[in-house]
Amino acid sequence: METVIVILSTLAVLSLILIAFVVLFRKYHRISHIAFFLSALSTAVVIGGDSLCVLRPESLVTWKRIVFIAEAVMVTSWLLFSMSFARVDYWGAVSKFSRALLLASPLFIYFFTAKPVEDFFYSPEFDIEKTLFLENTGYIFNLLLLFYSIVSIINLEATLRSSSGIGKWQIKYTIMGAGSIIAMNIFYYSYALLYRSLNMELLPVREGVILVSALLIGLSIFKHKALHVEIAISRKILFRSVSIFVVGFYLLGLGIVGEGMRYMGPQVGKNITTFLGFAGAILIMTALLSEQLRRKALVFISKNFYSSKYDYREQWLRFTQRISLKHTSEELLESIAGEFKEAIGSRGASVWLKEKDNGEYHCVTGPENDVIKEGPDKGLIEFLQSKKWILNVDDNKCKEIVEIHKSFLENTETSLIVPLFHIEDLIGFVILKEGLSGDEYNYEDYDLLKTLAKQATSAIMNSKLSVELTEAKEMEAVGRLSSFIIHDLKNAVSMLSLIAHNAEEHIDNPDFQRDAMRAVSNTSEKIKGIIERLKNLPAKTSLELEYSDLGACVRSAVSQLNMNGDPKLSFTEAGPVYTKIDREEIIKVIINLIMNAIDAAGTRGAIKINIGAGNSMAFIKVTDNGCGMSPDFIEKRLFKPFQTTKKKGLGIGLYQCKTIIDAHSGKLTVDSVEGRGTSFAVFLPLAAE
User: 3-class SS at 400?
Assistant: First the structure.
């Protein structure tokens, strides 16, 4: 027996240490990597320490103390690994109870490792029986070890049940290996609690199970890249367990084997029965978790027990629900690829879309997006466009086209190509790799894929239209801003035209000359400012508010216009009226209203400006005796962009004025009678005293 212990313990310990350090020295570290390193290393210490206890009974107390410390670290490390392995948000996906158990683990480790070994067990005849009888402290310690192990295996099952497709295929052997180690611990600690003793003669069984489990974990990590998988865990699945079914099947088989092995001797029968029981459990889990077997069983049941191979309603609802939850084009396309892959059990899928500018097709999802730079040849696209078939590389009807484009199809590992048609336009296609079940595709598979293709096409086109609509709105905003700037330039030109017109009569007047030069200078500065705004689109989006007197704003606007009595302008105010405004923008509004009044009244007309306050609002009224406006124009067109009664007007001025006043939480109103004139009133909140 000692030889068996030496061989098994050496192999198990070396396997665990090798895998642990390979995982530790990987390029990218995750919390699950550290947790696995600690779990594997502490498990190796437990196995090695227990082996030395059996082989060197005189050092029992020393080695068993080390084993107790390692066991405390082991179960907490396996708990952390079960919470973090292959999970995107490991902390948010576990129950509060698991979190509390993990956070309490340092206290658990410290409390029991600080106790003397004599408080855990006594061993009157260890040389003969290889049995340690538990004291109260040892009993509680093993109870907690069992408790941590049960929670760990529940977490691992939740991870496995939340995975699917290739992700499940990649991680299943790691979870089976880790789960087998934890299950062995559950058996060992439950046995200790049942008989209130630690049976060290079970050590070869533990070592054998752990060795097989380590090999499974190594296979999964090195061949299937299990440590690269990330799965979103559903909270609903955390406490759904099939453990009762597995344990029941396991106990039934164990009882049958045990009855047969009873006649081969009590100790040999016990060890072999236990080992075969765990080996059988591992084989059963391997069969149950095989994605290929699952797909084959699904196909068999669908063919023989149902009229249709697929539940189309379920497939449609699931596909629609999952893609409708995506917010970006990238997320949508990745979801479509994943749903196609899951629908028929493919090993992989990628979406290819047509470029708008050159009409070429490029991969837009998955790793192929970075690896495969060249798209399909024109002949393959013409085949898909004309035939509108799902191309199956194993179909004799497609043999010729497959041979012509063999290079592209092999590079992309193509098994099926599902075209995506919008009306008659081939907007893209989905490439599916070889299926997991190995079953031949038939008309039901094609019908399902065509149905999903129509829904996928609709979703892709909606996403494209949404992007185009967003871009159109951005262009509309730029166009609106440009209209505002053009209108400001028009006002500046109108000011210069007004100065030139008045200069014909007042050019020799020194006062007019000074006013004209000042107005030209101001207009020049305004044009420079407009040019700067054009250089730095978009225009300023926030108001620069300050306390200002509306009368001062009106006087500044009038001085910039340099009217010199043509037309006549009268200005009345009831004293200083202060508001919190963007002075530059409000002056722009006043200038625009006065310019409109000048255009309406002509040089022989009259314009009145009145400033006052009432009902917590300040107001500016600009009144002219011009041509006025019709009620229909005021109601339907006045404040709409690009609507004007002027022959050379842009129809943007009053729209811009209203936008500015609205931004100040104010109001712009109009009162007009055709043939008699118009009065515009600007209302702004009074500044708090």
Answer: helix
Instruction: For residues 622 and 611, give the distance between their C-alpha atoms in angstroms, rounded to a whole number.
Output: 9
103-to-98, 111, 142, 598, 676 alpha-carbon distances in Å: 9, 14, 19, 79, 84
User: What are the residue ranges of CATH 3.30.565.10 in the chain?
Assistant: 480-685
DSSP structure class, residue 686: B
**Structure confidence at residue 172 (pLDDT):** 81
Three-state SS string over 77-145 comes to: HHHHHHHHCCECCHHHHCCHHHHHHHHCHHHHHHHHHCCCHHHCEECCCHHHHCEEEECHHHHHHHHHH
Cα separation, 532 vs 562, whole angstroms: 25
Strand order in the sheet with 121-122: 121-122, 131-134, 197-199
User: What's the whole-number mean pLDDT along residues 542-569?
Assistant: 82
Architecture of the domain spanning 2-235: Up-down Bundle (1.20)
Would you say 229 and 166 are in contact if contact means Cβ atoms under 8 Å apart? Answer: no
Q: Are 185 and 149 in contact (CB under 8 A)?
A: yes
Kindly compute the dihedral angle of the four CA atoms of residues 332, 333, 338, 341, in this order, to the nearest 10 degrees: 140
What does the pLDDT average to over 624-631? 88
Decide: helix, strand or coil at residue 389.
Answer: coil
Question: What is the C-alpha separation between 369 and 27, in angstroms, rounded?
Answer: 23
Rounded CA-CA distance 54/60 in Å is 8
What are the tens digits of pLDDT across the range 43-69? 999 999 888 888 888 888 888 889 889
User: What pLDDT was estimated at residue 256?
Assistant: 47
User: Residues spanned by CATH 1.20.1070 within the chain?
Assistant: 2-235
Handedness of CA 259, 261, 265, 270 (dihedral sign): negative
Q: What is the CATH number of domain 480-685?
A: 3.30.565.10
- Residue 428 φ then ψ, to 5°: 170, -170
What tens digit of pLDDT does each residue of 303-361 get? 443 445 566 677 777 788 888 777 788 888 888 988 888 888 788 899 999 987 678 89
pLDDT at 685: 92
**Stretch(es) of the chain classified as CATH 3.30.450.40:** 312-470
The pLDDT tens digits for 643-673 are: 566 655 556 678 788 889 999 999 999 999 9
Three-state secondary structure along 627-667?
CCCCHHHHHHCCCCCCCCCCCCCCCCHHHHHHHHHHHCCCE
Q: How many residues does the chain have?
A: 689
The two tokens of residue 341 are 């892959």
The answer to whether 193 and 228 have CB atoms below 8 angstroms apart is: no
DSSP string, 134-185: E-HHHHHHHHHHHHHHHHHHHHHHHHHHH--HHHHHHHHHHHHHHHHHHHHH
Instruction: Of 203, 179, 177, 60, give the one whose Cα is nearest residue 125.
Output: 60
Output 214 or 520, whichever has higher pLDDT: 214
User: How deeply is 327 buried, as exposed, middle or buried, from its count of CB atoms within 10 A (0-12, 13-18, 19+)?
Assistant: exposed
DSSP H or E segment with residue 199: strand 197-199
**How far is residue 284's CA from residue 282's CA, in Å, rounded to a whole number?**
5
Fold of domain 312-470: Beta-Lactamase (3.30.450)
Cα 306–chain centre separation: 38
